[in-house]
């Protein structure tokens, strides 16, 4: 049955939203006191309000939410007080559940048995408050400083699923955070890194703990890379060992590399359409099993994590927080990631229908994430609160509506990257062909 995986996935998430004794003690600050009596703001309703990305006035959001339930609305003060009773850890675990449920219920796409995971980071500014700055960190210059944080994201580019996220202060390098991540990566991971992560420690750690990687190298630093570029070879095997400074940085993350430890890697030379030479380093050294011709496409697929970050920040309005307390901000952030994965599962369930439409078009069609995010938000109450028979029917209607909002998936043009001016003081920033739906 086409929709069996999405039905099972939503059922699993619905079960996680049910507040039992174990979850009370794990996720409520006062488990014996709150969410016991009948109230308009039940635990599941409060969670769904946060999951629905509260980006409008809270009064309007509450009016719309309870209007769909056909009951009287509550005040925004009631919501603010109610959500403070829930630990942010619940939304963190909800995000983890959405990722786990996808791999449990759907047949995940793989490349030669690997999950293709792009690793990348992004930063975002937080509301100006001392408590928030002390919790997440600061970013500033000689004139001022503002609360800010960075997120290191592990993104499954073939299945459009956020696998994991690690938040860290801006002064901590995302490369350092990644060193501590690698030991926990599953063995079926093929991690893809851009030039910002270039380090000989990365392939060594991946092989030590059983996973694999592809790393783009800078062409103007290493003598070995410069010599390879000048040669006529398309690929070359070399033995590499991290330098003292790199080993010391890795040791700060709790991982030890001996001074005589080295690893065999494979360098690949890729000629880009612009004429630029791209050098990739990989732990996949078997030429027959992993031919040279595959790697340009594999690295190009890394762009999926950039698109995911754009969707989260622009479509989901990540930094338009609905709370000005550290705990509320953490709830909003994890809810954003969970909502992205739920949307990806629904899009995956409609792939066959989209393929039928694509056969009649010049370019392959894909479901519009911006529009469908608004549709999902307006149907959360039906999908996650309605009784068994009703929610499945509601979900089918929602999925059908999603396939009516398609856009052409054109080849990404190869053009020089133009750095934009950071407009930190701008209140309203225009983006072409983009209108908010939340």
TrEMBL record:
Swiss-Prot/TrEMBL GO biological process terms: DNA transposition
The species this protein belongs to is Neolewinella agarilytica
Q: What is this protein called?
A: Transposase DDE domain-containing protein
Q: Enumerate the spans annotated as Transposase IS4-like domain.
A: 113-342
The signal peptide here is: none
Say which domain of life the source belongs to.
Bacteria
Identify a single GO molecular function assigned to this protein: transposase activity
**Which InterPro entries is this protein grouped with?**
RNaseH-like_sf, Transpos_IS4, Transposase_11
Q: Name any one Pfam family assigned in the record.
A: DDE_Tnp_1
């Amino acid at each position: 049955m086409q929709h069996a995986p999405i039905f099972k996935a939503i059922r699993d998430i619905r079960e996680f939203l049910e507040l039992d004794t174990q979850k009370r003690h794990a996720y409520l600050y006062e488990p014996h006191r709150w969410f016991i009596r009948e109230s308009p703001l039940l635990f599941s309703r409060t969670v769904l309000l946060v999951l629905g990305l509260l980006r409008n006035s809270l009064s309007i959001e509450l009016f719309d939410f309870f209007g769909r339930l056909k009951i009287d609305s509550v005040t925004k003060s009631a919501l603010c007080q109610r959500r403070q009773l829930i630990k942010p850890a619940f939304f963190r675990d909800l995000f983890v559940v959405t990722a786990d449920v996808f791999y449990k219920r759907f047949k995940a796409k793989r490349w030669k048995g690997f999950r293709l995971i792009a690793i990348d980071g992004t930063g975002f500014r937080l509301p100006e408050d001392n408590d928030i700055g002390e919790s997440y960190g600061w970013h500033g210059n000689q004139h001022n400083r503002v609360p800010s944080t960075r997120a290191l994201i592990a993104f499954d580019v073939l299945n459009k699923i956020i696998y994991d996220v690690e938040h860290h202060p801006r002064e901590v390098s995302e490369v350092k955070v990644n060193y501590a991540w690698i030991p926990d990566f599953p063995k079926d991971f093929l991690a893809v890194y851009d030039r910002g992560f270039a380090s000989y420690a990365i392939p060594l750690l991946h092989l030590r703990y059983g996973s694999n990687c592809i790393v783009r190298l800078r062409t103007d630093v290493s003598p070995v890379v410069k010599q390879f570029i000048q040669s006529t070879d398309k690929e070359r095997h070399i033995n590499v060992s991290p330098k003292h400074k790199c080993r010391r940085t890795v040791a700060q993350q709790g991982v030890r590399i001996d001074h005589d430890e080295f690893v065999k890697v494979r360098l690949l030379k890729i000629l880009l359409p612009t004429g630029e030479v791209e050098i990739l380093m990989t732990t996949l050294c078997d030429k027959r099993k992993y031919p040279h011709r595959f790697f340009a496409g594999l690295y190009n697929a890394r762009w999926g994590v950039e698109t995911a970050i754009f969707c989260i920040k622009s479509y989901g309005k990540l930094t338009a927080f609905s709370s000005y307390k550290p705990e509320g901000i953490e709830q909003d952030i994890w809810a954003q990631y969970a909502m992205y994965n739920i949307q990806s599962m629904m899009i995956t369930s409609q792939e066959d229908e989209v393929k039928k439409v694509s056969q009649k078009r010049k370019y392959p069609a894909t479901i519009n994430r911006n529009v469908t995010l608004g549709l999902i938000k307006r149907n959360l109450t039906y999908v996650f609160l309605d009784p068994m028979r009703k929610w499945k029917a509601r979900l089918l209607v929602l999925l059908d509506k999603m396939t009516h909002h398609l856009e052409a998936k054109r080849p990404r043009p190869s053009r020089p990257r133009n750095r934009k001016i950071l407009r930190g003081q701008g209140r309203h920033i225009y983006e072409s062909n983009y209108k908010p739906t939340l």
